[in-house]
């Protein structure tokens, strides 16, 4: 089974067409040869753009020469800074060095037993709600999964169950934020090191205010002693080192946004794929039944849910949550066969790597067996969570959450997509479907 993907261009686009395509999606400008496992460069107006698809070069950029490329690309910083401030996802230098160990400890896999009940309870509540729906009623998968994962991360980060209105503010706010952010920063490609700032965008500022107000209210409740002492935010307040109230808020927003958006999109794409692959649904259900025995799926079950984990892994190969990892070259460098200029836009693209015919057999097909048994991807060919020092610190949290949620949903429910529906993936900040993915849900 080959899930939907945008067709590659037959010829490189000109400047105007490139700009038009980028505004629609950052996936639409690639030609077939861009999927080869080799490095290439081009100029977009006055800016050198270097794309590294050879695994050895990917390792150089993300690991061995990371100090030259630790800074996120100017366009990503511009897109996220109004919301995340100096949060870990886009910070660098001393700020990143100070906060990375603190944040990594908060979401370390050793703390998963504390957060597992939030995952199990959250998805169980969703499925119980679905059981009350009228026959034939449809759900929109992405906002539903976003509300689910927002509720889970709220319990883990803040130790509270956010009211429905607060969750809606965050889920709808982030969706609006992605729609409002411009994917193409023209001034940057004309030579300005940072490009045009978004701080004067009134509509965007209002959206940021909606999201931040929810986070700030929860932080305030913790300061009043109303929070869970095992939550991430309680640990952050005890440890300090976040440079004041703004620093604490920025890391809380970063944890919340990264923690709910990437898992929500992964689950949405996994449910879409399974809606097209009944053979995989049947195999997954057999596994879940044998492991859980009809009981709620818990974090202790995850190591034994091998096929469920493989389906999540293969979903992230086909639909990586963050399809493009941009970096900015701090000085001139030689990587692989390319001479990289200072301030060049350096791209490692999981979207290209994960679909390269040089690195994967039948790369466009859904084949979860790639991740079963002794099978392992070639190093630096599979990057759903990046790699090197900037490997996502919440990787274990996200994988366990996705496995628990998918196993619970498919173990108890049957989802049926609209006949003939084909999803269109688009990339702005994360990889989302262009149109709603609607499914009827009914008891298994």
TrEMBL record:
Keyword Heme: yes
Keyword Oxidoreductase: yes
InterPro entries: Cyt_P450, Cyt_P450_CS, Cyt_P450_E_grp-I, Cyt_P450_sf, Cytochrome_P450_Monoox
Superkingdom assignment: Bacteria
This protein's UniProt keywords: Heme, Iron, Metal-binding, Monooxygenase, Oxidoreductase
Gene3D superfamilies attached to this UniProt entry: Cytochrome P450 (1.10.630.10)
Alphabetical list of Pfam families matching this protein: p450
Similarity field: Belongs to the cytochrome P450 family.
Full protein name: Cytochrome P450
């Amino acid at each position: 089974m080959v899930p939907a993907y945008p067709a590659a261009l037959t010829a490189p686009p000109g400047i105007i067409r490139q700009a038009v395509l980028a505004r629609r999606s950052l996936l639409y400008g690639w030609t077939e040869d861009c999927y080869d496992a080799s490095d290439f460069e081009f100029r977009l107006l006055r800016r050198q753009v270097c794309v590294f698809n050879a695994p050895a070069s990917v390792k150089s950029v993300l690991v061995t020469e990371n100090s030259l490329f630790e800074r996120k690309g100017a366009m990503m910083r511009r897109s996220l800074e109004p919301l995340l401030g100096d949060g870990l996802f886009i910070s660098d230098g001393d700020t990143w060095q100070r906060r990375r160990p603190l944040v990594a400890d908060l979401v370390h896999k050793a703390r998963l037993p504390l957060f597992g009940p939030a995952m199990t309870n959250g998805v169980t509540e969703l499925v119980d709600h679905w059981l009350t729906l009228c026959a034939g009623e449809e759900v929109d998968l992405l906002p539903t999964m976003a509300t689910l994962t927002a509720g889970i991360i709220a319990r883990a980060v803040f130790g509270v169950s956010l009211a429905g209105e607060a969750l809606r503010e965050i889920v709808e706010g982030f969706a609006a934020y992605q729609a409002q952010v411009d994917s193409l920063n023209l001034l940057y490609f004309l030579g300005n090191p940072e490009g045009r700032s978004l701080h004067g965008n009134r509509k965007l500022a209002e959206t940021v205010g909606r999201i931040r107000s929810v986070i700030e209210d929860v932080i305030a409740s913790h300061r009043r002693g109303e929070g869970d002492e095992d939550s991430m935010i309680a640990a952050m307040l005890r440890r300090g080192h976040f440079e004041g109230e703004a620093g604490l808020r920025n890391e809380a927003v970063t944890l919340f946004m990264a923690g709910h958006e990437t898992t929500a999109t992964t689950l949405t794409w996994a449910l879409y794929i399974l809606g097209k692959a009944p053979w995989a649904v049947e195999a997954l259900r057999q596994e879940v039944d044998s492991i859980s025995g009809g009981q709620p799926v818990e974090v202790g079950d995850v190591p034994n849910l091998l096929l469920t984990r493989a389906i999540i892994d293969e979903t992230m190969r086909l639909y990586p949550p963050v399809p493009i990892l941009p970096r900015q070259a701090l000085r001139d460098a030689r990587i692989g066969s390319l001479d990289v200029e200072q301030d060049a836009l350096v791209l490692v693209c999981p979207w290209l790597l994960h679909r390269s015919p040089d690195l994967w057999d039948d790369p466009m097909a859904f084949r979860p067996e790639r991740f079963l048994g002794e099978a392992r991807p070639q190093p630096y060919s599979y990057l759903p969570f990046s790699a090197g020092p900037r490997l996502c610190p919440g990787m274990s949290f996200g994988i366990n959450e996705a496995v628990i949620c998918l196993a619970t949903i498919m173990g108890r429910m049957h989802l049926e997509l609209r006949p003939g529906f084909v999803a269109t993936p688009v990339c702005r900040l994360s990889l989302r479907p262009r149109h709603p993915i609607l499914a009827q849900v009914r008891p298994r």
